[in-house]
Every structure is written in C-alpha cells, then in structure tokens.
Design goal:
The complex is a heterodimer of chains A (271) and B (324).
Chain A lengths: L19 E12 L2 E12 L3 E5 L6 H7 L10 E9 L2 E2 L7 H7 E4 L11 H12 L9 H11 L3 H4 L12 H14 L4 E5 L7 H14 L4 E5 L3 H7 L2 E6 L2 E7 H6 L4 H7 L5
Parallel strand pairs in A: 3-8, 3-9, 6-7, 7-8
Antiparallel strand pairs in A: 1-2, 1-4, 4-5, 9-10
Helix pairs in contact in A: 3-4, 3-6, 4-6, 6-7
Chain B lengths: L5 H56 L2 H4 L3 E2 L4 E2 L2 H32 L2 H13 L5 H27 L17 H25 L3 H9 L4 H30 L2 H6 L17 H8 L6 H37 L1
Antiparallel strand pairs in B: 1-2
The chains are: A alpha/beta (271), B mainly alpha (324).
Chain lengths: 271, 324
C-alpha cells in the first residue's frame, strides 16, 4: 500500500461506538431527474467533527444541504429517504423545515453577512428571526457576546459592534457568520467549505475554531481539502458520484482505507 | 512564435497605424464624441434658454412667483404658489398610493410568482408606462371622475367618516387633487415596480439562503435580507416615479380641475405647474406673462433635476455596496 498523503491526528474516535446524532437512511437527493446523492446511509456521531470529502461534483454539498432541509429550497429539487437528527425525523410528516433550520445552523462557502446590518445585528439576526427568546436565557447583548467569543471574534470586534458587517475582513466575516449560526445555540452546525474563499491565516483560525466547537456542538464540514479533513475531523465520509464509498474514523480512513477508490483518492491518485 | 524580430513588429505596427486602425479609430472616436457632446449640450442650452427667458419675471417679481397665490395677468401679478402646491401634493398622493402597490407587485414577481406568470404580469405592468398620457386623461374624465364623484368620495367622506378631517371634506365635484393623484399613481407605478423588480431579482441567492438557514420563513427572509439589500435601489425607483409624477401634464390637466387655490381637502380642485403652463402658453401675449410662465417652468425644471439627481445618487450607492 502506498503511504498516506497526510497524517491524521492521534485522538480519533471509533465511529460505531459513539452516540449517534444524525442518522440517514437511503437518502437520495435530486435536481429534477438527476440524482446528486444516491442512497446514502450514514450515522454521524454526536459532539464530534465529521468531514465529508470527495472530488468536485460528488454531491458533498448537496448531502450537507439535505441535513437542514436547505436542498429543497432550490426549484425542482427533492429528497427521498429519511434523516433523523437526535431522534427526530426531519423529513417526517408535519415537520416544519423552518423549525429544523432553527436547530441546525449552517455556514456557506463564501461569507454571507447581511451588508445593511451592523456586526451586532448580524449575530442577533437569528435570534430576531427565531423570536423564541423565552427558550434562550440572557439578554441579546450577552448572547451576541457569547456567540462572538465562541467564534473567536469577540476580541477583534468588541469595540466596533455597531459598524457595518462589510467593514471587516473576509476571514472575520466568515467567523461572524459562524457566530451568527451559533447565536441560536443549535445542536448541529453544518459548514459548507467554510474556508474555500479565505487566506491561509484566516483558514487556520476557522480550523482551530471548528476543532474547539466539537465540545459543545456536532459539526459536519464539507471540504475539498483532504489535509483540512485530516487536521480537524474525528470521522470522515468519502463520497464519489453521489454515493457513500466509505465512512470511518478519520484515522482509519486516511491510514487504512478499506475501499480501493478511497485509497486512490486519499493518496492523491485522482480527484 | 518564440522570437519575433523586433523590426518586423515595429514595421507591422507602423503599417497598421497608417493603413487602417488609426484613421478608422479617429473617425469613430470623433463621431461618438460628437454624439456624447451634443446631447448634454442640448440639455444645457434648454436650461440656459429657460432661465434667460424667466429672468425678467424673477427680476421684477422675485420670489413672489412661488410664494403668492394671486395670478392676475392684467394686474401684472403672477403668484404660482397654488400650482407649486398642487404639483407637490398630487405627486405626494401618487407616491403614497403607488409605492406600496408597486413594491408589492415587485416582491410578488421576484419572490413568489411561478416563472410562467412572471413574464406576462411583468410585461403588463411595464405596459402601463407605454399608454399615452392623453388616454389616461380621457379615462380619468369619463371613468375615474364619475366613479369618484358617485361612489368613492361619498364613501370616504361619509362611509368612513373621514369628512371630519380637513383632507376629505367639502363637496364631491369629481375633478380634484385626489383624481390627479390617482391618475399619477397609475402612471408612476410601472417605473417604481420595474426598478424594484430588477433590484430585488439582483439580490444574490446567498443572501436568501443565509436567512433561510437561520430558520427564517419566506416572509422573514424577504423582510430581513432581501428588501434591506435592495433598499437603495427601490428608493431610486420611487424617485424615478416621483420624477414622472412631477412633470406629467396632459392627464393631470384633464382631471385636476385647474383652479388656482390652495385647499387642504383632496376633494377640492387644484392646479399644477405643468397644467398652468399648458393652459396659458397660447394666450401669453405680453412679455411679463411669458416670462412668468418660463419662471414656473424653471422652478419645475429645478425640482425634477433635484429628484433625478437624488435617484442617480441612490442607484450609484447601491451598486457601490454590491461591488464590495
């Protein structure tokens, strides 16, 4: 066997023994008649970072967007199969996608701050939208501070909370979006290539932040960067042409892949 | 391709310059520059002509043209305050009615409408801008005004008891500030709605997704993410509609009643600067009368210029924000 391209961290967890958070069964996602995700059954563990890797166009982002019902917001898109998050069937009859999204945060490839709002208002946007302040203890200011601290941004912006969210750098904007997603205290946070548009230093900050987040929240991250997956994730799923090829602890998947296609991908022979 | 002799390149460039590109480019450059200069020069020339012709009236009467209400050609009094008031009030009424409707249409078309409906509805709304204003005037006289006189005005005044307020009191003649405001609303609506629709559709999908991913409903997404992003552009559209309403002449002249009085009631007939000029230019024989009409035209010109400048500035601001 060829030597692995990257060295994963030592502290990897056993996938099958961890408490499950997200369980999908035969999940398929379509754009019109084209299936972007086919029959994916995966059990993502709680309070861990799970990376989804694979070559461009393999359906990584689509799979992620099925986990908070964002996929169906695209005209002509639909989902088959089932997804359970912490025991609740999010595609069950009568389940409101809006309620799902309030508990499953999401951050996108490019920073998406609301440009007309201040930094403070951006972080509080989810709170305002949720209008469920009764469920969250503390004043808005406290929640904003807590979310910015968790996103590692508080020290950089605490004196300029009233400034426009477009006045800060791209890397800071991305961490602002993470803070915005954290403010409503979701149980799960989905990151769709969150560092794809960032410089190396900002990327490192976001990676450190993601590594720390696992203590409090379940993280699913899509990345096309294998080194990144190896650095920050506990488990890794390898997707190819919409199908789940292999899912294992990051350490196993990178050092002893069971599937020859996974091996070819992680050793850099294609993709 | 690796190493071209330098002299070949130079001689070729020289040959090109002499033979074709230089002369052709010069001609094109000259022709387009001519076009680009003639149009602004025309605007400046019109402005200069209006202000020059208006100067005698301003010199003789000063600001009393816009501050007094007595318009007496024989006595030499030219106070156009009722016309200025009528222009501003009828346009304001038009905007108050047209803006919510137009933005509603724009939001429906950009956010909710199925795609098969978007094109035809958008086209029909845009078509409102293509109807000649004299046709609007005819419709106003023979359809709108009888309806106002017989149903709408009595209902507003007595049915809703709005007659207690000064704005909806007095007899219901028909030709009125309200009729002018309604006609202008229909005429300004397509401008506001077309611009709003474009800027709403230009809001990036990522902004909508960011709001949806926070658990926003469709309505909250529009309210918190889409409309704020497009706000400056929408205001620019409203300003364009206002510019249209301020300058409209024919339809307003046909329905406003043409009475130079300032009244708080929207039921009362009024006057606008544009209808004042349209009604009197053919009878203006003495120099001061002509000059006074020019002065009214100059005031109208300046007001619309300001409105258009504000609209431009707002549109520029929104495009600058988006570029970042």
């Amino acid at each position: 066997m060829t030597a692995p391209a990257v060295q994963p961290p030592e502290s990897s967890i056993a996938v099958d023994k961890a408490k499950p958070c997200i369980v999908t069964r035969d999940l398929s996602a379509y754009f019109g008649d084209t299936a972007a995700v086919r029959n994916v059954s995966i059990t993502i563990p709680q309070q861990a970072v799970t990376a989804i890797i694979g070559p461009s166009g393999c359906g990584k982002s689509t799979l992620l967007r099925c986990l908070n019902r964002m996929h169906e917001t695209v005209p002509g898109a639909r989902v088959e199969g089932s997804v359970e998050i912490l025991g609740s069937a999010i595609y069950g009859d009568g389940t409101n996608p809006i309620a799902v999204r309030r508990h499953v945060g999401m951050v996108f490839q490019r920073p998406t701050p609301f440009p007309t709002m201040s930094i403070r208002a951006n972080v509080a946007a989810g709170l305002r939208i949720a209008a469920k302040k009764g469920e969250i203890s503390g004043s808005t200011d406290e929640i904003v501070e807590e979310a910015l601290r968790r996103a590692g941004l508080w020290e950089e912006v605490k004196d300029r909370l009233s400034e426009s969210a477009t006045a800060i750098s791209g890397g800071q904007q991305q961490r602002l979006c993470i803070a915005r997603a954290l403010a409503t205290r979701p149980r799960v946070i989905l990151l769709d290539e969150p560092t794809a548009s960032l410089d190396p230093l900002s990327t490192q900050k976001v990676e450190e932040l993601v590594y720390d987040l696992r203590k409090t929240v379940t993280v699913v991250i899509v990345t096309h960067n294998m080194q990144q997956a190896a650095r920050i994730s506990d488990c890794t799923a390898f997707l190819l042409a919409g199908e789940l090829i292999e899912f294992d602890s990051t350490r196993e998947l990178f050092t002893a892949p069971k599937d020859s296609q996974t091996e070819a991908y992680v050793t850099g022979r294609f993709g | 391709m690796t190493s071209l002799p330098l002299d070949w390149l130079q001689s070729d460039r020289r040959r090109l310059r002499v033979d074709q590109s230089a002369i052709g480019d010069r001609v094109y450059e000259f022709l387009t520059a001519l076009c680009a200069l003639v149009v602004p020069a025309l605007v400046v020339a019109i402005a200069v002509a209006i202000f020059a012709a208006a100067w005698p009236a301003f010199a003789r009467l000063g600001l009393s043209i816009v501050t007094t209400s007595d318009w007496d050609v024989r006595g030499g009094h030219f106070g156009a305050a009722p016309a200025l008031f009528g222009t501003l009030v009828s346009s304001a009424v038009a905007l108050i009615i047209a803006t919510p409707l137009a933005i509603g249409v724009a939001i429906f078309l950009s956010e909710f409408s199925p795609s098969w409906l978007r094109q035809p509805v958008g086209f029909l709304v845009d078509l409102l801008a293509a109807i000649p204003s004299v046709v609007y005037g005819l419709w106003g006289i023979f359809v709108l005004i009888p309806m106002l006189r017989q149903q709408v005005m009595p209902f507003l005044r007595d049915g809703l008891h709005l007659g207690a307020t000064p704005f909806f009191s007095g007899p219901a003649y028909g030709p009125s500030m309200l009729a002018a405001g309604l006609i202008l609303a229909v005429m300004a609506l397509p401008y506001i709605s077309a611009v709003s629709r474009e800027v709403l559709m230009a809001v990036p999908r990522s902004q909508r997704e960011a709001a949806l991913a926070l658990g926003a409903t469709r309505w909250e997404t529009i309210r918190d993410a889409v409309v704020p992003y497009a706000k400056s552009g929408i205001i620019g559209g409203i300003m364009l509609g206002l510019g249209r309403a301020l300058g409209e002449t024919m339809a307003v002249t046909m329905v406003i009643g043409n009475r130079p009085e300032i009244s708080a009631s929207l039921f009362a007939p009024g006057y606008t600067m544009a209808s004042l000029i349209a009604n009197e230019f053919s009878e203006a024989t003495n120099d001061l009368h002509v000059s006074a009409l020019m002065a009214v035209g100059a005031v109208l010109f300046v007001i619309t210029l300001i409105v258009n400048a504000v609209a431009r500035w707002l549109v520029w601001r929104v495009s600058r924000v988006r570029a970042r």
